[in-house]
Design goal:
globular; 6 strands; two-stranded parallel ribbon
């Protein structure tokens, strides 16, 4: 609770995955559809509904332990609950409705076209190969990933959305003016806990 704030900062999230998961390529395409340039969160939550100053989602994977799935952004105080509901709504839509062929193609192209920036300098290649060696990944891991992205289908997207996006596991953090958030966060139907972030002097 920060009574001096006129807007809310919101994060929703749960555990993500690992880079060596066979579903990692499909999950990165899913992430691009959700929150890439012109993705669903931007188009629906920010542009169409006007609920966000900024909005984003990130499916984060690590080499040897799970990363995090995080979605969130900033919104005006009175729009906090509608903002949270809108993000959850987009997650549910990905789980329950197939994406369009254009969304799939645009997302795959965005990922594949970004590869040119991964090979700009020799140091990038050396660092990547050293990292693969350290974590026991194949030296051609990035090329295998590239080919797997090309093969991702609409069915793959819905399958990984249903498997890995888990609304019932999401923890939501809101930093804002508790008294001015109307309707209150409790209207979301979950237990609300105030976190004391006061820094005490020793």
């Amino acid at each position: 609770n920060q009574p001096q704030l006129t807007q809310s900062s919101v994060l929703l999230g749960h555990l993500g995955g690992r880079l060596d998961s066979p579903d990692y390529p499909a999950l990165t395409v899913l992430n691009e559809i959700l929150s890439g340039f012109g993705g669903r969160l931007f188009n629906e939550v920010r542009s169409r509904q006007g609920l966000a100053y900024s909005v984003y989602g990130i499916w984060n994977s690590r080499y040897d332990y799970p990363g995090l799935f995080i979605a969130g952004g900033q919104t005006r105080t009175d729009a906090t609950v509608p903002f949270i509901k809108a993000i959850l709504g987009e997650i549910e839509r990905l789980r329950n409705q197939p994406v369009t062929a254009k969304e799939l193609e645009d997302a795959k192209n965005a990922i594949l076209n970004s590869f040119v920036f991964k090979f700009e300098k020799p140091g990038q290649n050396l660092s990547r190969l050293m990292t693969y060696e350290y974590y026991g990944y194949p030296q051609d891991f990035i090329f295998r990933y590239q080919q797997a992205v090309k093969g991702v289908t609409i069915a793959d997207i819905q399958r990984v959305a249903q498997q890995y996006l888990q609304p019932n596991q999401i923890v939501t953090l809101v930093v804002g003016n508790e008294q001015e958030i109307q309707p209150p966060l409790s209207s979301l139907g979950t237990t609300v806990k105030t976190v004391d972030v006061t820094i005490t002097q020793i």
